[in-house]
TrEMBL record:
It comes from the Eukaryota. This is SH2 domain-containing protein. InterPro entries: SH2_dom_sf (IPR036860).
Length: 134
């Protein structure tokens, strides 16, 4: 399983002032050296509602949403009763639109794929690990 992480971060730059050059009429926004780039894990946490929606989806809905998407595209399905993550759906990206399912175990403090002994303290860490190692 290879998860594909396509995360786009748009930052609002209210504190940067545009500089207009009177000579050639160009406008530039100065680079602020104090800004730190967000890590991949921070980006995953920031957009978790997109790949693990709060409203419970069912397996079929998740499959329909990512069928035909590039290989590694994924969605996490929540249990309709507990609202805990229960299924990781990953697009195989083939011509048949196959979607692979990985059952998840979730306790209050640990997340893991059912067939794995590895556990993670939060869902973004699990997704990041499998996206970098598979």
């Amino acid at each position: 399983m290879k998860l594909q992480l396509n995360i786009f971060l748009i930052e609002e730059r209210k504190d940067d002032m545009a500089v207009h050059a009177s000579v050639n009429g160009t406008t530039a926004i100065p680079w602020r050296r104090g800004r730190r780039r967000l890590s991949l894990l921070e980006n995953l946490r920031g957009c978790q509602d997109a790949w693990c929606p709060g409203a419970p989806w069912d397996r079929e809905g998740a499959h329909a949403a990512i069928r035909g998407a590039p290989a590694g595209s994924f969605l996490v399905v929540r249990d309709s009763v507990t609202s805990r993550p229960c299924l990781l759906c990953v697009s195989a990206g083939d011509q048949h639109g196959e979607v692979l399912d990985y059952n998840m175990n979730c306790t209050g403090t640990a997340f893991q794929l059912a067939e794995s002994r590895l556990s993670f303290s939060d869902l973004p860490q699990l997704v990041l690990f499998y996206s970098l190692t598979r």
